[in-house]
């Protein structure tokens, strides 16, 4: 409801302000509300994730000791460390091992886009509910909205597929395949077994929200074109000699 609070905070004496929340029930306004909500979900499901990978290690009298490497957004896995299960007993055979990969650029691209879309939706909703008559009469507003919608749909497409690829690599870099890459696990008398990794179902959902945002913004392009006077103007231009 932050867009309602923002609209309510605008001074009623501002020139041209005509608050009308019924526009939110129309396709253009309703879709913008959905885009606002889905941007929040995309941001939260990716940016709020925290997980850990757990190994079971035995070395020099230390039997079946669990060690963990905690990771989270923005997924700079190369900074995440598996420390020795017992510094005294394993100190001469174990060196701190890092996970592999830095996926921060893909994750931050996705989350930053979601945050910017969230802010733009609030601005658009204020215009729809307070200045819809100006929006319909002035070509600059629909043209700007149309341009932003096309660009945003494209950016959702790119960021979602980039993030989906990064997520697939994150699953590999935190899964059972990491064992052969840990040099300390190859030391004489040391054995390592993969135990578990935090479920990444919520990150899978972030990809789905990205795809839904892309579809909504692609549909928004048509709605902006159809529900404003851009369509009628284009028809007049095409019919003129």
- What proportion of the residues is helical, as a percent range? 55-70%
Distance between the termini: 49 Å
Number of helices: 8
Number of strands: 5
Tell me, briefly, the overall form: rod-shaped
Which strand-content bin applies to the residues? 5-15%
Structural class of the secondary structure composition? alpha+beta
Number of domains: 1
Instruction: Determine Rg (CA atoms, Å).
Output: 26 Å
Mean pLDDT: 83
Strand arrangement in the largest pleated sheet: 2-1-5
Query: What is the chain-wise order of helices and strands?
Result: HHEEEHEHHHEHH
Poorly predicted parts: 1-15, 234-239
- Characterize the main sheet: 3 strands, antiparallel
Characterise the protein shown here.
The chain has 241 residues and is α+β, with helices and mostly antiparallel strands. It has one domain. The protein has 8 helices and 5 strands. The strands form 2 sheets. The protein has a 3-stranded antiparallel β-sheet with strand order 2-1-5, with no helix packed on it. Strands 3-4 form a two-stranded antiparallel sheet. The N terminus and C terminus are likely disordered. Keywords: Glycoprotein, Membrane, Transmembrane, Transmembrane helix.
């Amino acid at each position: 409801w932050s867009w309602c609070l923002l609209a309510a905070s605008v001074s009623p004496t501002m020139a041209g302000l005509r608050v009308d929340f019924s526009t939110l029930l129309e396709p253009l306004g309703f879709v913008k509300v959905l885009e606002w909500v889905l941007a929040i979900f995309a941001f939260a499901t990716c940016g709020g994730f925290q997980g850990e990978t757990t190994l079971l290690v035995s070395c020099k009298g230390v039997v079946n000791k669990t060690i963990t490497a905690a990771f989270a957004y923005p997924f700079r896995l190369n900074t995440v460390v598996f420390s020795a299960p017992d510094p005294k007993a394993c100190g001469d055979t174990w060196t701190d091992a890092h996970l592999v990969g830095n996926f921060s650029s893909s994750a931050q691209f996705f989350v930053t886009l979601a945050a910017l879309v969230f802010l733009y939706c609030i601005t658009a909703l204020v215009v729809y509910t307070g200045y819809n008559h100006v929006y319909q009469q002035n070509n600059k507003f629909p043209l700007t909205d149309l341009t932003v919608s096309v660009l945003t749909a494209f950016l959702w497409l790119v960021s979602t597929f980039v993030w989906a690829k990064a997520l697939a690599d994150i699953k590999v870099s935190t899964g059972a395949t990491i064992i052969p890459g840990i040099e300390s696990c190859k030391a004489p008398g040391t054995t390592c077994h993969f135990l578990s990794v935090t479920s990444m179902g919520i990150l899978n959902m972030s990809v789905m929200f990205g795809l839904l945002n892309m579809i909504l913004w692609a549909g928004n392009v048509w709605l902006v074109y159809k529900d404003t006077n851009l369509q009628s103007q284009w028809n007049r231009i095409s019919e003129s000699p």
